[in-house]
Design a protein that fits this description.
By secondary structure, the protein is an alpha+beta fold. Among the domains are: 209 residues, no CATH class; 142 residues, no CATH class; 172 residues, no CATH class. Helices cover 31% and strands 20% of the residues. The chain contains 24 helices and 29 strands. One of its GO terms (molecular function) is metallopeptidase activity. Keywords: Signal. This is DUF5117 domain-containing protein.
């Protein structure tokens, strides 16, 4: 992944000082050695290389002269510590073997600003190394897996010639071991130096204006060897212009752990990716196929599960795997939450049963120092749920995989303490109307425990290879979520990997009590697809042929639909939504918000406390209402995405039904552009609001208009009209539906006046700003993949339609009225004139910036629970 190595950098850093004492005096002589670091970004990822430059050549010595009587720490490599130096004894049998190297924070200073990489246990970097011997030196090579060809292919040698492994570090051989089956090298400079591959990430260096590693305040703490791995713990102090704690130190200090784990000699049999089933994976260019092109091949990420009894497995019996998936709970975790976290892990066993395995996964408390003195939560051999003392409202589930095969090797789930605040607020706002048990300031431990169990299952799903399935919740009809019998059996969505939160649709009197997601039908299917074992040593291609049959059998059944995250084109693929009709679901949701808002103070009363909680929950109500607006708006100009293969009938992309798009505009007119005055509860607002909430409601209305008039959305609507004619919901239809909601016959109040100005401003932006929605360096195809449909707005039909709309509005504006109303309409006429005949730079009032559109953003997140992380 090397996710922190983003820029091309060349650094030469004084890395190590050797103290030598003459026999006749105590004068210290210093000899500098250097680490030359080069970080390179390639299509296959980023690679850091560091050359450890030798000082004065010393020649090869006898093993006993260097090591003496120091006892070896035996393991993957025998390691030695002699006079403050650390040595690796590398056996010939491990030369050219690939090893996974993972560096994590052990301890960090307080107040780090870098969200997502600031707590002990969080990963900094991972990389694959090979130790290579050449004459009197040993090199660390970093293989690349971005291109490949099978060793039997005619292209194999050509690929090798153009895919040379980078050299990370070079070491002089200091000695040969006693039977000359291995060599001894000094690795002190590697671990004690500033090497990006195993050191501080570049983004933190920039953030704190770090200039160099300070060797006088840095050291190697321990180097420990185990049967298949080596663990090196270091303390590194950097000179820094800004410290997160105290600038008078002019430094920042971190404790790091680097694990080097031997990869399997024979990689696991890879499973080819299928866009119709959701799995994290990796892609590479394969020159060894007969596709008559450089073919992009994708492999999914999954744990290696093989049945202990292959014959019983083949008979359809549930069989235990040869190696169980084990997750340890961080000893720092509050004891009362441990059982719930473990339960969330163990819940996945029912999914693995669908793949033919029993007891495939287990959560355990981490062993104590007495039980296992060698256990470490940073050790790459162990998967751990790490608990962070943090006010961040989040949790995330990453994993580390073998780049040769996609085999998941370990995972460190990140669990922030304050995720409980997030859960409490969501569960209250989304269910308090039907759930009297949450009408309190603080949930019981049992209530919070069940919510923690739900999040634990979700994050563990990521570590099993499952991404978010944003399309899953669309499978259930809205009214089914008002049924007690249905929700008791199915929860809120067929997949716990959707962002289908809690049941905001159920109404008082429905009797619904099961209000949160659970591992569902899709999850069982995905695990079956990804983890089923095929005996007989089948090739990935042969397995794919069998899996294709399964996939086509499920095609068309919404329970087994996978909807990817990362596109804003398909209204079914949204976070925080429920049901198969956003308009209907949102009407139910708003009805519940209207019941909750007036009761916030009463339901969360806390004697002697201020009104911070009332303010928090009031803002959560507004935020939830805004989510409903977003769910509905996505239908306008929306397209459904259903990945298929040649042997499947039907369209991959199709436009949302015309009537649904019209219904979305009707909803916005009724629920948003007619001011939602139910959001203004003076009894509650008087306890905390100092003039902010009214402005938030106004901004909500204006931003809604800006989203409807998003140029990517308009581009798709013109595309629909060109392809489908009268059956399309057109831009003209949209303007005709939208205009009466913005400009009503009644005298406009302060909200409506603000909305009308926002509408004119957005039209002015479309008419005069040529900016396209984009990400730096993104191609038109990539933009389209995110739903940011590219369009040449200057030459498109957007401008003529906008001019016509402005002319209609200008012609319909009344004259007269009271002083404020008259001034408002006069102002609108001037704004329209300025839009049609601009005399000044375009400024987007809604977005607050010059010449930029408030465009929809793709729904991107980083393998985490709330959409805010990593």
């Amino acid at each position: 992944m090397n996710r922190n190595l983003r820029v091309n950098t060349y650094l030469t850093i004084a890395a190590f000082t050797i103290a030598a004492f003459a026999s006749s005096c105590a004068t210290k002589k210093q000899t500098e050695r250097t680490v030359t670091l080069k970080t390179t970004t390639t299509p296959g990822g980023s690679t850091a290389t560091a050359t450890i430059g030798a000082g004065k050549k010393e020649g090869i010595k006898k093993f006993s002269d260097l090591i003496g009587k120091v006892k070896a720490d035996t393991g993957l490599f025998n390691t030695y510590k002699v006079d403050g130096k650390y040595y690796f004894e590398i056996p010939d049998s491990l030369i050219n073997r690939e090893m996974l190297v993972v560096t994590r924070f052990v301890k960090t200073p307080t107040g780090l600003k870098s969200f997502g990489q600031q707590y002990g246990g969080e990963e900094i970097n991972d990389q694959v190394w090979k130790w290579e011997r050449h004459d009197k030196q040993v090199f660390v090579r970093v293989p690349s897996y971005s291109v490949r060809a099978d060793s039997t292919s005619d292209m194999y040698q050509s690929v090798k010639n153009s895919n040379l492994d980078a050299v990370l570090a070079a070491f002089d051989i200091k000695a040969y071991n006693k039977d000359t089956t291995g060599v001894l090298i000094d690795v002190t400079d590697l671990y004690n130096g500033d090497v990006a591959a195993i050191g501080l990430p570049d983004n933190i260096k920039k953030m704190y204006k770090i200039s160099a590693l300070d060797n006088t305040r840095s050291y190697i703490d321990t180097v420990k060897s185990f049967p298949i791995n080596i663990e090196a713990r270091t303390l590194k102090t950097y000179r820094a212009g800004e410290s997160p704690t105290d600038n008078s130190n002019a430094a920042v200090t971190f404790e790091l752990n680097t694990s080097m784990l031997l990869l399997p000699k024979t990689p696991m049999n890879a499973r080819l990716n299928d866009d119709r089933v959701g799995f994290f994976g990796q892609r590479q260019t394969d020159y060894g196929t007969d596709a008559q092109k450089a073919e992009a091949t994708g492999y999914i990420h999954r744990w290696k599960l093989e049945p202990k009894d292959e014959a019983a497995y083949s008979r359809g019996e549930l069989v235990e795997p040869k190696k169980q998936i084990v997750y340890y709970i961080d000893p720092a975790t509050p004891k009362k939450w441990v059982p719930y976290l473990i339960a969330g892990i163990n819940d996945w066993n029912k999914a693995f049963e669908a793949a033919g395995f029993k007891n495939a996964i287990v959560g355990k408390e981490a062993p104590t120092a007495k039980q296992d003195p060698e256990f470490s939560t940073e050790d790459a051999r162990y998967s751990v749920l790490r608990y962070f003392a943090s006010d961040v409202q989040n949790a995330y589930g990453p994993h580390i995989s073998d780049p040769r095969s996609g085999e998941i090797l370990e995972s460190h789930v990140g669990w922030y303490h304050n995720v409980m605040s997030l859960l409490r607020n969501w569960y209250f706002i989304q269910t308090a109307a039907v759930n009297p048990n949450v009408r309190m300031a603080k949930f019981t431990d049992a209530q919070m425990g069940e919510l923690i169990r739900f999040v634990s299952s979700h994050e563990i799903g990521h570590t099993l290879g499952l991404p978010h399935n944003f399309g899953s919740s669309y499978a259930y009809p809205v009214d089914s979520l008002r049924s007690k019998s249905f929700t008791d059996k199915h929860g809120t969505a067929p997949s716990i990997m959707d962002y289908a939160r809690f049941n905001y649709i159920a109404q008082p009197g429905d009797g619904v009590t099961h209000l949160y997601p659970q591992i569902g039908e899709y999850d069982l299917w995905a695990v079956k697809w990804g983890y089923s074992y095929f005996p007989g040593k089948k090739t990935p291609k042969q397995e794919k042929e069998l899996l294709d049959v399964w996939t086509k059998e499920k095609a068309g059944n919404p329970l087994y639909y996978y909807g990817r995250q990362g596109t804003s084109i398909d209204p079914r693929l949204q976070n925080e939504d429920l049901g198969d009709n956003a308009m209907k679901a949102s009407v139910y949701g708003i009805a519940n918000l209207k019941r909750i808002l007036p009761n916030i103070e009463k339901w969360t009363f806390q004697k002697g406390e201020d009104y911070d909680d009332v303010q928090t929950l009031y803002n959560e109500v507004i935020g939830q209402f805004n989510r409903y607006i977003g769910h509905v708006t996505m239908n306008i100009g929306g397209m459904n995405e259903n990945f298929k293969t040649y042997d499947q009938q039907g369209a991959v992309y199709g436009f949302v039904n015309k009537s649904l798009q019209h219904d979305a505009l009707v909803f916005l007119n009724q629920q948003v552009y007619i001011t939602p005055r139910w959001l203004i509860n003076n009894a509650e607002l008087s306890k905390f609001d100092n003039g902010v909430v009214i402005g938030r409601i106004k901004a909500l209305q204006v931003n809604s208009v800006a989203s409807v008039l998003n140029q990517s959305r308009l581009a798709r609507m013109f595309d629909n009209q060109a392809k489908n004619g009268a059956s399309a919901y057109t831009v003209a239809d949209m303007f005709n539906d939208l205009r009466p909601g913005i400009f009503t016959n009644s005298t406009p109040d302060e909200f409506k006046r603000n909305l009308q100005r926002g509408y004119i401003d957005r039209l002015r932006i479309l008419l005069n700003d040529d900016a396209n929605p984009s990400f730096p360096g993104a191609t038109p195809a990539q933009l389209a993949g995110y739903g940011l449909t590219p369009i040449n707005i200057a030459l498109s039909d957007i401008r003529p339609m906008v001019r016509a709309e402005l002319a209609k509005i200008s012609a319909s504006l009344p004259k007269g009225g009271d002083a404020l109303t008259s001034a408002h309409f006069a102002d609108l006429r001037l704004r329209i004139k300025e839009a049609l005949y601009p005399t000044r730079p375009v400024v987007n009032i809604a977005a607050g910036g010059p010449g930029r559109l408030n465009d929809e953003a793709p729904q991107i997140d980083y393998d985490c629970f709330p959409q805010t992380k990593q």
